[in-house]
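quick q for whoever's on today - can somebody do inverse folding on this one?? i tried earlier but teh output was garbage lol. C-alpha cells:
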C-alpha cells in the first residue's frame, strides 16, 4: 500500500497540474469513498473552489481549497491521476473532479481505487482528519531527542509502535522494516530498552529510508501505484530467503502484529 514516499511522489507530480485551477464539478461513482460530508453537500461545497495548494501530511494527499481542505487517503490500492475530460471512466474510478484552468480548459482529476478502502474528506478544520497524528518524520519538529523521549515513555514493541500513526505519522510496513534493519534493531525490541545512541540510529534510519524512497519516486509493489523504483533497493523488505546486504545472512520473515516483517537475524539481534 502507498506509504509516505509514494504519496509524496504523487503530490509532487500533481501539484503543478492542480494549483491555481478550480473545481467545477465532482462525480461520485462510489458513495462510500466519501467519509464526510454527505454526497449532496460535498458536491455543492466543492464546486467553484480554487485549488490553493497541494501537499502531503503523513499518508494523506491534501488539497487546500479556498474555503475547505480536501483529504484523500489511498489506503490499499488508491491512485490519483489527471485525464482528459472526454476519457471514459475506468472500472475502478470512484471519484472524478473536473478541474478548470483560468483559460477555461478543463481536465479530470481521477481517484481510482480497486479495493475500495480509500477515503475522501472535505472539511473546514484539518484537525478533524489529521488532528491526532504524530510528528511528520521529515520535519524539523521530529528530532532524535523527541524520538528518544517517545520511546522511553512507552513500553511497546518497536514495529507496532512505529506503525502507530499517533506516535509517528506516515510510516508503513515497507519503510519500517527498512529503517529497523538500517538501525540494527529488532522489530520486537521493547521501545524503552533503547539507549540514546540506538534511538538516534533509529531516527537517522527512518529519515534516510524515507528520503531514499522519495528520491526513487516510491516503491511499486502490490498495488496500483506505478513508476517508483525503490523496490529495487530494498534491504530486507520482501526479501525473505535472500542474503542480507550487510552481512550475507539469510533474511527471515516474521509476523509482528499481523504484519509481514523482514529481519536479518544477525544484524538485528537486539530483542529485549
Ligand atoms: Zn545482516
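ok took a stab at it. sequence:
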Amino acid at each position: 500500500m502507498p506509504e509516505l514516499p509514494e504519496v509524496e511522489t504523487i503530490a509532487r507530480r500533481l501539484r503543478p497540474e492542480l494549483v491555481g485551477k478550480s473545481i467545477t464539478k465532482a462525480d461520485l461513482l462510489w458513495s462510500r469513498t466519501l467519509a464526510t460530508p454527505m454526497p449532496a453537500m460535498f458536491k455543492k461545497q466543492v464546486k467553484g473552489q480554487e485549488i490553493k495548494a497541494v501537499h502531503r501530511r503523513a499518508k494523506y494527499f491534501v488539497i487546500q481549497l479556498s474555503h475547505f481542505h480536501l483529504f484523500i487517503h489511498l489506503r490499499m490500492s488508491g491512485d490519483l491521476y489527471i485525464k482528459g475530460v472526454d476519457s471514459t471512466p475506468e472500472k475502478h474510478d470512484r471519484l472524478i473532479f473536473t478541474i478548470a484552468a483560468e483559460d477555461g480548459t478543463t481536465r479530470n482529476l481521477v481517484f481510482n481505487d480497486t479495493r475500495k478502502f480509500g477515503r475522501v474528506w472535505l472539511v473546514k478544520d484539518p484537525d478533524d482528519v489529521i488532528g491526532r497524528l504524530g510528528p511528520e518524520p521529515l520535519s524539523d519538529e521530529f528530532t532524535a531527542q523527541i524520538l528518544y523521549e517517545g520511546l522511553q515513555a512507552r513500553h511497546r514493541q518497536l514495529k507496532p509502535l512505529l506503525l502507530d500513526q499517533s506516535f509517528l505519522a506516515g510510516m508503513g510496513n515497507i519503510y519500517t522494516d527498512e529503517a529497523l534493519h538500517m538501525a540494527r534493531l529488532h522489530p520486537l525490541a521493547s521501545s524503552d530498552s533503547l539507549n540514546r545512541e540506538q534511538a538516534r540510529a533509529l531516527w537517522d534510519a527512518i529519515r534516510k529510508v524515507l528520503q531514499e524512497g522519495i528520491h526513487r519516486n516510491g516503491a511499486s509493489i502490490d498495488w496500483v501505484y506505478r513508476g517508483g523504483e525503490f523496490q529495487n533497493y530494498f534491504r530486507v523488505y520482501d526479501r525473505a530467503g535472500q542474503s542480507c546486504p550487510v552481512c550475507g545472512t539469510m533474511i527471515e520473515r516474521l509476523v509482528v502484529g499481523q504484519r509481514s516483517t523482514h529481519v536479518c537475524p544477525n544484524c538485528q539481534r537486539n530483542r529485549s
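fwiw The first helix runs from residue 4 to 18. also The mean pLDDT is 95. so keep that in mind when u check it
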